[in-house]
């Protein structure tokens, strides 16, 4: 276990160095500029150059990167080039909103996918099964930003029953019901964008469980079909379902960045996209680095979960 953890730690350090440098190069070579962040009107080349010089953005690429890396290794995430605020403070304000949206959507996605997968297997090869797969796969083939725009058009513009943006209405930041209303559309966009993949995998795992020997033995003892599905089949299939869900949850959480930008939801996603557009590399690199750390940590926990939660051994 110690060797395994040590190997993962070295791999994480290597990935952090490589990804941070690669992202820095891409941001450096992009056409945007932090000078345009607070200036809606066109700037002259001289004024833009003066702003970038004051922020030390006129120095060579490697020199800028090494300066940032030196500060990062000392625990200094620096300040935003746009607002001047500490990166720590910006992330501390945005992260709770992203976590609330991400984990709430994850919970809804897991329950919905599992329920529909059981329903699909229970009515296998019927109209219900085929309809569920067709609808869910149709949403899977649609980009999440397009789903988000479609939901805004229907529920916020035409029906006017749900808000289209922000975390809450102005002055109602502490109103739990108001915050929940603002969560509905982003959550629905995230769930619909991923439902097809999770439903397909969960259905496959459940169908694999139906081919096990204990299924015929249980039916021979007179166990009802509903009890078989919701007790034995679900118990047998739960470990691989949980492992798959945990392994892919970080990708789901990262996808919230795109949805947040569409809904102007004040989270990490909106922050990182704005920072990339305006080349605010202290903010963008900090978010990318911590996202990568989250991926590695979650994958490590998933591997442990796969070994600890293997309930199927009881059927061997």
Structure description:
It is a single chain. This protein has helices at residues 2-29, 45-54, 61-73, 87-122, 127-140, 144-158, 176-210, 213-220, 225-262, 268-277, 281-308. Helices cover 74% and strands 0% of the residues. It is globular, with a radius of gyration of 24 Å. It is an all-alpha fold. The chain contains eleven helices and no strands.
Task: Write out key terms for the chains shown.
mainly alpha; disordered C terminus; about 75% helix; about 325 residues
What's the short story on this structure?
With 316 residues, the protein is an all-alpha fold.
Number of helices: 11
Helicity level: over 70%
Q: Work out the strand percent.
A: under 5%
Q: Span from first to last CA?
A: 26 Å
**SSE run:** HHHHHHHHHHH
Largest sheet composition? none
Output the structural class.
Answer: mainly alpha
Tell how many strands the DSSP assignment holds.
0
- Given as residue ranges, the uncertain stretches (5+ residues, pLDDT < 50) are 311-316
- Shape designation: globular
Question: In angstroms, what is the radius of gyration?
Answer: 24 Å
What is the averaged pLDDT score?
81
Topology:
Blueprint (H helix, E strand, L loop, with lengths): L1 H28 L15 H10 L6 H13 L13 H36 L4 H14 L3 H15 L17 H35 L2 H8 L4 H38 L5 H10 L3 H28 L8
């Amino acid at each position: 276990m110690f060797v395994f953890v040590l190997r993962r730690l070295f791999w994480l350090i290597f990935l952090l160095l490589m990804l941070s440098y690669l992202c820095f190069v891409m941001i450096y070579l992009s056409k945007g500029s932090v000078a345009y962040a607070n200036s809606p009107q066109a700037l002259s080349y001289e004024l833009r150059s003066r702003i970038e010089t004051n922020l030390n953005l006129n120095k060579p690429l490697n020199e800028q990167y090494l300066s940032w890396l030196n500060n990062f290794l000392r625990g200094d995430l620096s300040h935003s080039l746009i607002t001047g605020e500490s990166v720590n403070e910006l992330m501390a304000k945005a992260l709770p909103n992203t976590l609330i949206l991400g984990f709430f959507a994850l919970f809804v996605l897991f329950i919905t996918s599992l329920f529909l997968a059981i329903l699909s297997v229970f009515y296998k090869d019927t109209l219900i099964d085929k309809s569920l797969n067709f609808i869910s796969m149709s949403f899977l083939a649609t980009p999440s930003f397009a789903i988000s725009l479609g939901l805004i058009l229907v529920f916020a513009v035409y029906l006017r029953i749900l808000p289209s943006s922000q975390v809450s209405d102005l002055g109602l930041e502490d109103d739990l019901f108001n915050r929940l209303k603002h969560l509905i559309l982003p959550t629905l966009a995230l769930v619909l964008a991923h439902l097809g993949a999770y439903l397909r995998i969960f259905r496959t795992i459940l169908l694999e469980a139906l081919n096990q020997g204990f299924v015929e033995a249980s039916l021979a003892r007179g166990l009802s079909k509903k009890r078989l599905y919701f007790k034995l089949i679900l118990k047998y299939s739960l470990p691989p379902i949980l492992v798959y869900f945990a392994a892919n949850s970080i990708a789901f959480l990262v996808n919230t960045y795109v949805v947040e930008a569409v809904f102007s939801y004040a989270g990490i996603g909106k922050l990182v996209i704005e920072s990339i557009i305006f080349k605010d590399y202290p903010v963008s690199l900090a978010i990318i680095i911590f996202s990568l750390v989250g991926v590695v940590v979650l994958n490590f926990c998933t591997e442990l979960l796969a070994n600890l939660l293997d309930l199927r051994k009881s059927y061997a």
